[in-house]
Amino acid sequence: MGDPVLQPSVYDGGSGQDTIGYLERFIPLQRAFENVHSPIAVAAAFLGNRLVKLMGPGYRLRLEKNYGIANVVDCAVARPVSRDAISDEIVGLGKVTGMGSVRLGMPVRKSGRTSGVTSGKVIAVDVTLQVELGSNEIALFTDQVVADRFSLPGDSGSLIVDEDMRAVGLLFAGSHMLTVFNKISNVLDALGIIF
To answer: For the CA atoms of 54, 58, 63, 65, what is the dihedral angle to 10 degrees?
Structure first.
């Protein structure tokens, strides 16, 4: 709470002088799995890996704790330092006209930090999937929307809009084949934002 939000970001050359707001609220992510480091688990994995080596090289046994907790959103909201520090227009797209809902096959667009303005198509709704958070950390997400790939790393946080410029989602993950986003209704509910 209270962390500065910069535009441009530090990664893109920004500094404290580029502060446009401060973190107001966020939804903590829950890990689905975590590597187990207890002495008993380490010993069991060691013994198991000795046995696995008999099967051949290239295999490894690892023990993980399954929390079984699912996330619905990956989002946060900031309080602007002033009204002049922000705009109600999305770069390259214009103003959002309202809130919509997603449906299978619908075209969507976004303006992202890395890939700019791009378009895609929704290929699945109400999806449950695992997302890698970092080294050996995985989070489970439910009620997600999957589109064909129209984003790149660094585009996370982009607002997803439909053809009528209605907000339908918030981009948070992707791969070399897909883009994944939270439903905008879930984001607004989680953050307590009235649209």
So the answer is: -150
Residue 43 lies in domain: 33-66
What value does the CA radius of gyration of the chain take, rounded to a whole number of Å? 20
51 shares its domain with 120: no
pTM of the model: 0.81
User: Same domain for 110 and 186?
Assistant: yes
Both tokens of 111, joined, read 């303006």
**pLDDT tens, residue by residue, 137-183:** 788 999 999 999 999 999 999 999 999 999 999 999 999 999 999 99
In a domain, 53, yes or no: yes
- Domain count across the chain: 2
CA distance 2 to 81: 11
Rounded to an integer, what distance in angstroms lies between the CA atom of residue 48 and that of residue 182? 39
